[in-house]
From TrEMBL, chains A, B, C, D, E, F:
InterPro entries: Asp/Glu/hydantoin_racemase (IPR015942), Hydantoin_racemase-like (IPR052186), Iso_Racemase_Enz_sf (IPR053714). This is Aspartate/glutamate racemase family protein. PANTHER family: PROTEIN DCG1 (PTHR28047:SF5). Gene3D superfamilies: 3.40.50.12500. It comes from Flaviflagellibacter deserti. Belongs to the HyuE racemase family.
Amino acid sequence: MRILVVNPNTTVGMTAKIGEAARSVAAAGTEILAVNPAMGPVSIEGFYDEALALPGLLQEIARGEAAGANGVVIACFDDTGLDAARALATVPVVGICESALAAAGMIATKISVVTTLSRSLVPIEGLVRRYGFAERARVHASDIPVLSLEDSASGAGSILRAAIKSALESDGSDAVVLGCAGMADLARDLTAEFGVPVIDGVSAGVKMVEALVGLGLKTAKSGAYARPLDKTYTGALADFAPAVILRG
Amino acid sequence: MRILVVNPNTTVGMTAKIGEAARSVAAAGTEILAVNPAMGPVSIEGFYDEALALPGLLQEIARGEAAGANGVVIACFDDTGLDAARALATVPVVGICESALAAAGMIATKISVVTTLSRSLVPIEGLVRRYGFAERARVHASDIPVLSLEDSASGAGSILRAAIKSALESDGSDAVVLGCAGMADLARDLTAEFGVPVIDGVSAGVKMVEALVGLGLKTAKSGAYARPLDKTYTGALADFAPAVILRG
Amino acid sequence: MRILVVNPNTTVGMTAKIGEAARSVAAAGTEILAVNPAMGPVSIEGFYDEALALPGLLQEIARGEAAGANGVVIACFDDTGLDAARALATVPVVGICESALAAAGMIATKISVVTTLSRSLVPIEGLVRRYGFAERARVHASDIPVLSLEDSASGAGSILRAAIKSALESDGSDAVVLGCAGMADLARDLTAEFGVPVIDGVSAGVKMVEALVGLGLKTAKSGAYARPLDKTYTGALADFAPAVILRG
Amino acid sequence: MRILVVNPNTTVGMTAKIGEAARSVAAAGTEILAVNPAMGPVSIEGFYDEALALPGLLQEIARGEAAGANGVVIACFDDTGLDAARALATVPVVGICESALAAAGMIATKISVVTTLSRSLVPIEGLVRRYGFAERARVHASDIPVLSLEDSASGAGSILRAAIKSALESDGSDAVVLGCAGMADLARDLTAEFGVPVIDGVSAGVKMVEALVGLGLKTAKSGAYARPLDKTYTGALADFAPAVILRG
Amino acid sequence: MRILVVNPNTTVGMTAKIGEAARSVAAAGTEILAVNPAMGPVSIEGFYDEALALPGLLQEIARGEAAGANGVVIACFDDTGLDAARALATVPVVGICESALAAAGMIATKISVVTTLSRSLVPIEGLVRRYGFAERARVHASDIPVLSLEDSASGAGSILRAAIKSALESDGSDAVVLGCAGMADLARDLTAEFGVPVIDGVSAGVKMVEALVGLGLKTAKSGAYARPLDKTYTGALADFAPAVILRG
Amino acid sequence: MRILVVNPNTTVGMTAKIGEAARSVAAAGTEILAVNPAMGPVSIEGFYDEALALPGLLQEIARGEAAGANGVVIACFDDTGLDAARALATVPVVGICESALAAAGMIATKISVVTTLSRSLVPIEGLVRRYGFAERARVHASDIPVLSLEDSASGAGSILRAAIKSALESDGSDAVVLGCAGMADLARDLTAEFGVPVIDGVSAGVKMVEALVGLGLKTAKSGAYARPLDKTYTGALADFAPAVILRG
């Protein structure tokens, strides 16, 4: 099984860390392809960055499926372009927010999500509602910029720990979800430190794709995820055509 | 007052029709600038098209605000990129689904939304929930492709009328919202024919922007619509930088 | 265009202030008629006052429409008798809570509503849910009696400011809605002071009615807002017959 | 125990029928006082009639409590003025829609509510949501005018039976609630005919008030049902002052 | 009328207290049968205890109905096995959480539920949602073990009072529901002390059953509460067969 | 990895079929232990059967974990005793309704659940809400008794196919979930026949447990799934003590 893990921002160091987290949980026969787009923002912090990350993300997914990927993980906690990706792909596609919440919901009753900037609260709260966790999960910002997680001298670790401690107390929760792909390397340590399950979405996404592929499931093509209709694209996007790549 | 009306697809004929609908309701002192991006899909039918329409749409909004627009209407019924646009702009930005529902909700109790393809049902139902109309509005597909609305010989008119009739009966509704910018020219006739208010989102969007501008309101910049952070964009999007245009 | 703005309580000074706020945002061709009933309570603070304000309010609306008003704003933040008014009138009728939330929802993501007495929290929270803002708006009481807003020596201004500050912090909101018609004169100053949009419902109501009238919309008469059936009214209400006034 | 049952419309024959239904279930020591206002509409069909019924209804409740009633049933299925009545009274006040749903919810899983005119669907659906039955109860109109229930030659009985049959089938429900006080005499027969519990709100209201009084409960006065504040009422309502009556 | 009140745990002293509370509000002609199962846990604190209490509880209900009980109160605040009991019984069955919320909802607007251990928060919050009180009631733990309520020297009373005080303040509520059958004896005193209605579910349950029986209502048998199908039970449950007891 | 799959009813043939379905999707290194309790009902059809299945189910889970199982699938579509099982176990426990919905939600937008008897609609609809699929999934009964799925001559297959066809049409769904463990062998064929993903919960449950175990997750023990408190159990359950088995 070959799983494509797409970091939708263009920061190569973060892609490496994400790939490592993915490989650390992948089953014996699973190959992880960790990539990021060549075009787009260096990090995704809010609605605007997410929008500009989409074309590059979709291009990577099209290339990955054309190259034989059996499933896709979108490795940004706003589940960047998840619906568009599912319309494009025929293999299963999951988001890391979605996967982390699904896993957390099966082992705990109340969930604290701890993310980076406060501008991401509203988009993530929207995902929490979409995935059916409105009554069980609350979202908190730690006010750590995404890329400071890549910098060990930034103090991000201790700020994150303080945010987790505060969230567990105020929510009365029994599990934590880390709300940024850049935190993927911290889950195991934090689980030990806090004594509650602390879940990283990248790892969860890999296991969810393994599960879907293992069930022989493909993305449903008879509804809103129907294959994109053939149509003309112009301008900068004319040469760039994920759907065309896939149609081969 | 100058209102930018952006058709997020690249079909110029549809932009013209949208501009006409906008002008037909604009107040005496309101100038309408109807534009469409140079890059992107010729029509937006589903999640994938929407994603690829975003960069071009955001570019038009940045240019429009830089050129003095006081407010923006996004003239596609999936409210393409509404949150990203609000993060980008400082002037008010409204979607036509949002505006049509807001207007309908002030004059009626139950609302039938009639859109084009069935693949658009799920995205529009998502908007209905987002805007707080889950208990009041139901969405129906007429199975008319968007561009057939541009072709008077397509029979789209009579198919649409049948879909409206059926929706009113099954919903017990007292108002209709037309679920595609390409239907903007039909609202007045359909109101007369069906004896219930039939609302076009393009017109509603113009009046909502006039209202917001008249109230002196700007998009809130202290929360999730905070101005995009300065960061590097690479690849095809490097030269294209809506946020940079705006910071100008 | 002629817009009837009805203050549903009987305090003439408050009607004057409301009229002034309405005129300050009205479009060039819009005439504002600010009135209040001759019968009813001097202020509306809670469910009981609201009920006793209804007959006088409906009478003013019937008179206004008979005299040529093109639309109606009900200028009390509990949106007094909104449904009954819509059943009575054929022109559009909006409430100021409804209008303020609609405007706020188009420029911000999370909204703090700051009202007067704590006994109004439950009725306003009911409106917040009705208008679809349950996930986005929270309501706070400042414990200022309505009529103290008419008395510049009452200290109401500083109490209100403290309540707004506290609400913004606890809600993490990016806009404020003033929850009483008696605060209509404060929005502009408070916007400047707090650096977030602060919205007054009276102004918002006027612009929403202008929008609806500009769209050629009338209140839907085929559903729950159907014209009241002809029937006998007895007692103190026999001589008083809003529906009869309208039927001419 | 003395229970005041107020029919909020002015039709004396309907009050008599309501009183009879109330007495048929009242406990041994319970005295039923069935009254109707002297002022207001002859029947309540929609939002407008409800509004004009309020002053007379509140006056009857004030008189009743002053005369020693231990609890109040508001005997119209739109639960006319329930919140205002609770703010006015210190004894418990229940609505018949509320009481019927509470009873139905304790013996069945899904509930069909069958009411009179379709213009009452929206108000009753609002009550269904308010009382927490949105997922369990659906509302149907039989298109019987309220007063035709008072006329045995109207054929209302067979129309109602057809509506119940259709509702049970389409809802897959296991209980029926009769959605009009004028149907209070039919519950027992319909239960036998349809083989499912058919519940009348007037009877249910009496038993709920008996329960609340038996528990020694009074209406809470520290929140939104706080005693109306002392204030001036003018015009036709000056002489009429339910709150003053109660303050004695 | 004969009402079976089942304490689903095996602590006889608690059954006695529950019986006393039930009798203190029962109507003149109502006989209270307070029982507890011979098998099961000594107290119910969380999901696991609840599951193991079910067989004994159902056996008591079958015996009670066979012996002529006209209705049943399940006297544990997690409404242990309510749906199974309703499927088994033909007489009405109510839970004490359900009954207390129903009563509270008719006299107050916002409700604070104060229960024992924090592990019971999630199950009770589930009930609050099920009964339609998600927007009106919040649940608080006092961290008192259930059986310490049976021990006057445990200090449970003062801990409970502190929890009630804190809950009223943070919720802005106007009524309190005691979230454990073991608190049944405290409601009257606490009502006096706090000046808000404080409601005990055991008492409320008795009055609700009296109401349902007085209305001639039986549990609906055409839906999800249909009589259990005849089938073989094996093992420890073979000899024990509530449904068989009832079928006689 | 060793996964315990518990069929909570006592029908050995069904356990065998469930075990086969589980093994057909299990990863290379996963051992499946398919068991059923010795005590309880031969099938679970409705709330009552579910209650009596709990003690036997919990006993099997305790034995399984004591014997080294790394995770548990509860193989009945009402997710029998899921919360109690999670409180008992330290390894992850999933239900098959939960697992099937989670998988379906990642590849499709709208889901039709097709179950056996109509008395199971309400319990399963409750699960659909609990897992956050209220807006996406609808439940249908095929009126096939559970055990007729074990009898190839019963015609159950063609009845089920008709129910699936009807559900897809009325729901406009793009995926089907089979609502009974007894249908576990049919998913692959039905997927091919209907051209939409058809999902079996037993298989989905196995893959979800593999995912959770692969992530190193255990059931959270700091909240509502806290380890059962030490306490006395009496009667038929005294000798039977799942929690004691686990505590060793």
